[in-house]
Amino acid sequence: MEDTKSKFKRVCVFCGSSSGKKSSYQEAAIQLGKELAERRIDLVYGGATVGLMGLVSQAVHDGGRHVLGVIPRSLMPVAITGEIVGEVRAVSSMHQRKAEMARQADAFIALPGGFGTLEELLEVVTFAQLGIHRKPVGLLNVDGYFNSLLSFIDNAFDEGFIPPPAHRIIVSAPTAIELIRKLEEYVSEIDEVASQLVWEEVETPNYACA
On the CB side of 38, how many CA atoms lie within 13 Å of its CA? Predict the structure, then answer.
């Protein structure tokens, strides 16, 4: 690992609260946490102590860096087991969770995960496309896990649904070292279409049943 200080103070990591079937996913989460700590980067994440979330947060914490977990109060009984790692900030909703993580972060990285990981990732990509933020977004593409997503994005670009600057928002790499290097080098090409907006001002949908 490179013993250099990053320009990022804190990185947000999206990932699963499950560990996945392959040991390579777990190894990648630990390696990412170690790489962040080595570069003196703090972590903000979804707050769980289980699955890949637990592994990456523990690795950052063990490396001596600050860990901030942001989690809705309703998820705390199932997502936090055993000893709490770092600081936990409880919020009232999933929308507040995403807004707080985004506000705290200088960059975003997605590890393998499910629907929640994908939703969080695509929100920060969409907001980057709108010019709400200019922070880099990366995929840690462990064993080609995100290949099908990258193919979908390429197809949407080819079919005219994603403009060229937005097509280049996501950077991808198979290792933590390479990904962080690419994120450091990233320069946004997006015009500030909606730069006056912030996460909290985007209308929060009401999913409650009538």
Answer: 13
